[in-house]
Amino acid sequence: MIRIRQLEAFRAIMITGGVTSAAGMLNISQPAVSRLISNLEQTLGFAVFQRRKGRLHPTQEAEFLFAEVERVFANLDHIAQISHDILHQKTGHLRIACLPGFATSLLPRVVADFLADRPDVTISIQTRSSARVREWIAAQQYDVGIADEFDGHSAVEHESIELRSVCVLTGDHRLASRDVIEPKDLEGEPMITNDRDHSFNLAVERRFDDAGIELVRRVEVRQFATACLLANRGIGASIVSSIDAAEYTDQGLVAIPFEPNVPFGIDLLYPAYHPRPLLLREFTDLFKRALEPFIY
After folding, report:
1. 10 Å Cβ neighbour count for 236?
2. pLDDT score recorded for residue 84
3. How many whole angstroms separate alpha carbon 207 and alpha carbon 287?
4. Which of 92, 157, 84, 80 is nearest to 120 (CA)?
């Protein structure tokens, strides 16, 4: 079989015009170059160089072969570049499934930062409920999922992260200047809450019950983003995750720490029994660093 080293010697002579220069190019001895060419000719079954007046001259067969060898080395260079890009997370495709709230808050910024110096990386993002995200991850249809209320699945690995909660209200609200808001501060206050059966809503209700305060439910919503928009229109106060509130503070919404804190848990989901590529690990590391200012 033809060996790459034989082709390297052949190519070096074709480029430099002689054994001495080829040896220097390959950083090997002249006899080593001669042996590689001799072995190549034995393998091919025909001569690639003729020696006339002390110089090597390529045969017609060598001229034809050289064009093919150049294509081989161009492909090798391309493979080397791809390998480098893979190692340094510069190429590839990521499939992300997430809750709708993340697709309109933190995730776009993380994706933009991640792609900034990776022009050959592509990403697809699909939003659905946590249950559907879990199903997709279990079926290995996506590389990573961002969900909440994960209750376990044999085909899914996960990382849990707890985010701080805040009380959001308008800038002219009577409580807007507080450093901390407690359930007693919200007595009689119309509230915008999560779905009644969501674990976060149940935890908020327990905080009010423990304080002996009635939770006055005015609007019930599925997403924190909706709660923030309604709160900013003066419909009422709401307890939401700090990460969602941050998206609206530049629009006049005030976000104040809520105590006792109600952590909002999110889960990063991965297909089990499936190696996580370097590109995915780099992305999730960046995503988790972006979460740090909001972690409880």
Report:
1. 22
2. 60
3. 30
4. 92
Residue 144 burial (10 A CB sphere; 0-12, 13-18, 19+): buried
Contact present, 214 and 208 (Cβ < 8 Å) = yes
What domains appear along the chain, each with residue ranges and CATH number?
4-87 (1.10.10.10), 94-162+265-294 (3.40.190.10), 165-262 (3.40.190.10)
Neighbours of 228 (CB within 10 A): 27
pTM to 2 decimal places: 0.68
Q: What are 12-52's pLDDT values in tens digits?
A: 888 888 888 888 888 899 899 889 989 988 888 888 888 88
Mean per-residue pLDDT over the chain, rounded: 89
Neighbouring residues of 267: CB distance < 8 A, sequence distance ≥ 6: 145, 146, 147, 148, 150, 158, 159, 160, 161
Distance CA 111, CA 215 (A): 38
DSSP letter, residue 185: G
Q: Supply the pLDDT for residue 270.
A: 96
- Tell me how far apart the terminal alpha carbons of the chain are, to the nearest angstrom: 62
- CA dist 279 and 144 (Å) reads 12
- Residues in the chain predicted with pLDDT less than 50, given as ranges, are none
Beta bridge partners of 122: 93
